From TrEMBL:
Residue runs in coiled coils: none
The protein's name in its UniProt record: Aminoglycoside phosphotransferase
Pfam families, A to Z: APH (PF01636)
Domain Aminoglycoside phosphotransferase: 38-243
Entries under InterPro entries matching the protein: Aminoglycoside_PTrfase, Kinase-like_dom_sf
Annotated keywords: Transferase
SUPFAM superfamilies referenced in this protein's UniProt entry, alphabetically: Protein kinase-like (PK-like) (SSF56112)
Transmembrane annotation, as ranges: none
GO MF terms, alphabetically ordered: transferase activity
Length: 294
């Protein structure tokens, strides 16, 4: 369920107005996968972006994680600043700088945004090592993927392609190889990367975790494939990142399988509105797994 500004508890609206001045305009924006409010506010202090949801929502832990990251991000990180947060009235509320003159990046072949995206990933690895935030280890994220992946492989649907490649690749994943001391965004895709005149900004840190810097680069590869690159072209792009040179081959292949099988699962059994998009992502990931195991 998506909420409008007027549907937020008056206590929260009053607290934001007290912090930033009178609210001159509130425009509800299309939300992502989490059920909550996404609002652009014009205030006496300037334009803000507000996201909020009830604390009993299934997505509430993601907001709590983003809140922790927002309080810890160094100023050098190319991300909008979290200006205020609150957990009151049964709601979690986050207030950020509004990113003006922004659009989603294009990860496609030949896109002028690619250099900026790679620059951003490089900067994240350098700036966020050591990890400044209290977030779970990347193994927590990956183990969640693996539960769905293993369930699918235990009872594979008849239409599951590349099942042998998937099984082999999944067997290569040793989660100890993912450990490290870098704060990872762990969900870089077009919807979370904004192109602005000064470069690329990253938003939505709800899946942030701590792990090896190369994991960020690896998780970008299937997004590049989904945008039209071949697996070889996608890996050639991330080879420009220093962290990729430290990536253990077996762990990359295993992670590719976990990422893709999770989307194979959701594409079949997840909420109906997202099945098609997850099936497309699974197809991209599958080509990567086949490339690495072929």
């Amino acid at each position: 369920m998506m909420y409008r500004w007027e549907e937020l508890p008056a206590e929260i609206r009053d607290m934001i107005a007290a912090e930033f001045g009178p609210i001159r305009q509130a425009i509800s924006l299309p939300g992502g996968l989490t059920a909550g409010a996404a609002v652009r506010l014009a205030t006496a202090s300037g334009t803000l972006f507000v996201k909020a949801l009830p604390d009993d929502s299934r997505s509430a832990p993601l907001y709590q994680r983003e809140r922790l990251v927002g309080t810890a991000l160094p100023p050098a990180v190319p991300a909008p600043r979290m200006l205020w947060s609150g957990h009151t009235g049964g709601w979690i509320t986050l207030v950020f700088e509004h990113v003006d003159h922004a659009r989603e990046v294009d990860l496609g072949i030949g896109s002028p945004d690619l250099d900026g995206v790679l620059d951003l990933v490089r900067a994240l690895g350098e700036t966020l090592t050591p990890n400044p935030a209290e977030v779970p280890p990347v193994t927590d994220n990956v183990e969640f993927l693996c539960k769905r992946a293993d369930a699918l492989l235990a009872n594979p649907p008849t239409d599951l392609e590349a099942s042998d490649a998937y099984r082999h690749a999944r067997s290569l994943l040793n989660t100890d190889a993912l450990a490290g001391d870098t704060l990872l965004h762990a969900d870089l895709h077009e919807g979370n990367l904004l192109a602005v005149p000064a470069g690329v900004r990253v938003i939505d840190w709800g899946l942030a975790c701590q792990g090896a810097a190369w994991v960020e680069a690896a998780l970008l590869v299937p997004r590049l494939i989904l945008a039209g690159h071949t697996p070889a072209q996608a890996e050639e792009l991330v080879e420009q990142l220093p962290a990729w040179k430290e990536a253990p081959g077996a762990a990359v292949t295993g992670l590719a399988a976990a990422w893709s099988l999770f989307r194979e699962f959701v594409g079949r059994y997840g909420p109906e509105p997202i099945r098609a998009s997850r099936a497309r992502a699974a197809a991209a990931g599958r080509t990567w797994v086949e490339y690495r195991t072929g």
